[in-house]
Write a structure and sequence with these properties.
There is one protein chain. With 420 residues, this protein is of the alpha/beta class. The chain is built from 20 helices and five strands. It folds into three domains: 112 residues, Serine Threonine Protein Phosphatase 5, Tetratricopeptide repeat; 133 residues, DNA Cyclobutane Dipyrimidine Photolyase, subunit A, domain 3 (Orthogonal Bundle); 120 residues, HUPs (Rossmann fold, 3-Layer(aba) Sandwich). A five-stranded parallel sheet has the order 3-2-1-4-5, with helices on both faces. Helix 17 links the parallel strand 4 and strand 5. Helix 6 crosses helix 12, helix 13 runs antiparallel to helix 14 and helix 16 crosses helix 17.
Length: 420
């Protein structure tokens, strides 16, 4: 009889806040070199894992930053020793830069998702298959376990995410965009760039003609034979043809970053894409008051799922307390990014400037775009502060990851993390 899996509570698996993120980083750093490189592909099952960092929710919401993570790793390891882990961190920057130069890909995903939802509503067979997949009732043991783990914990190992997406698309023949949406609705670290482009890659539409096929032997090996390769061989698709022939759009270039006025008092708006604090701002930026938004805008609702919503809401509370104490300024948590709220708070401290960390392409960026016209009309300027890390990395994401990877030493040198 198959053993029933036990899933940890997501609040204990991922305590919110910058402090827990830094503690987890400190704990993982000794294992981020050769140990990580040798064991990172293994998925031991639900719960805490020692072979991977489990930092993704903290980096995703920038409670800790990519630069801080790489800096901590390089304090204990040579760049060559920690190469694999550093590359994994830089994959995030690459995906964000790639989408930043092609925002239409995000909008196309949302449109395809919505169209697929309508189509599925009119097809009872596909609707049943979709429900069985999301509830972990397909009869494919590994897939069903991963579906239940995702819904229960808000997390999946990266290798399991690839296997899951491949089985969803090529074995179950379900729409890729609804699979990407399933992840967005349940992952605590759900990221518009990594998630959308990762699913596109598996489906064969991100890198033209290249797909990812989940193989029984690979699954059995990297799950320590929890799942039978023989049984999976009878269940899984043996081929993975691209779902369509699509050429990704050309890179349009990264728009110039906003200039952040110095010497002018401002209201600081922090949001779920960047909760670490003031690190994105120029040192001379004068903050009069702080607002931390725990969600998006009414026209761009976010987070998409309950686990991420809970994590971001609790992290927003922690951020307000931490940054308010650090700057000795009033700090308030608000639900949504709302123009009227921001105007009222700006006027309460007699400022005409709102500064906020830049949000990459996605719902938070859409929320900022949505409130900017009303702020302008009220005489309040919104300025987005881009982090130096992003400003250096994003322009190099013009093609595939491997050309980008060649730039990693240069990026680390520019960040002052290595000497060459």
């Amino acid at each position: 009889m198959k053993q029933q899996l036990e899933f940890p509570d997501p609040r204990s698996l991922f305590p919110p806040g910058r402090g827990p993120g830094l503690e987890r980083l400190e704990d993982f750093v000794p294992r981020s070199g050769r140990h990580y490189a040798a064991t990172r592909n293994f998925d031991p099952g639900p719960g805490p894992r020692s072979n991977v960092s489990m930092l993704s929710p903290y980096i995703r919401h920038r409670l800790i930053t990519e630069r801080e993570v790489v800096e901590a790793v390089l304090r204990q390891h040579a760049p060559a020793t920690a190469e694999k882990f550093i590359q994994e961190v830089l994959w995030r920057s690459y995906w964000k830069g790639w989408l930043q130069m092609r925002p239409q890909v995000w909008r196309a995903f949302l449109a395809e998702r919505d169209a697929d939802r309508v189509q599925v509503e009119g097809n009872s067979g596909v609707q049943t298959a979709l429900t069985e997949a999301e509830e972990g009732r397909t009869g494919i043991a590994c897939f069903d376990d991963w579906a239940r783990e995702l819904v229960a914990t808000g997390y999946l190992h990266n290798h399991a995410r690839m296997w899951f997406a491949s089985i969803w698309i090529f074995t179950l023949n379900l729409p890729w965009a609804l699979g990407a949406d399933f992840f967005l609705r349940h992952l605590i670290d759900a990221d518009p760039a990594s998630n959308t482009l990762g699913w596109r890659w598996v489906a064969g539409i991100q890198t033209r003609g290249k797909t990812y096929l989940a193989r029984p032997g690979n699954i059995a090996r990297y799950t320590d034979s929890r799942y039978s390769a023989d049984e999976l061989g009878r269940q899984l698709a043996t081929e993975a043809a691209p779902i369509r022939d699509e050429t990704p759009p050309r890179a349009a270039g990264v728009a110039r970053a906003d200039r952040i006025p110095t010497g002018q008092p401002a209201l600081l708006l922090l949001h779920g894409d960047d909760l670490s604090g003031t690190g994105a701002l120029p040192p001379a930026c004068e903050i009069a008051s702080i607002v931390v938004a725990g969600s998006g805008h009414e026209s761009a609702p976010w987070p998409f799922g309950d686990k991420a919503s809970d994590f971001v809401a609790r992290a927003a509370e922690e951020t307000a307390g931490r940054v308010g104490e650090e700057l000795d300024r009033d700090a308030a948590v608000v639900g949504a990014i709302d123009a009227d709220e921001l105007i009222e708070r700006a006027r309460a401290v007699d400022v005409e400037l709102v500064v906020t960390p830049e949000a990459p392409v996605g719902p938070v960026a859409d929320a900022l775009d949505a409130v900017e016209p009303a702020l302008d009309n009220a005489g309040v300027k919104l300025r987005r502060a881009r982090r130096d890390w992003d400003d250096a990395a994003w322009p190099h994401a013009t093609r595939g990851f491997f050309p980008f990877k060649k730039k990693i030493p240069e990026l680390l040198e520019r960040a002052g993390l290595i000497d060459r």
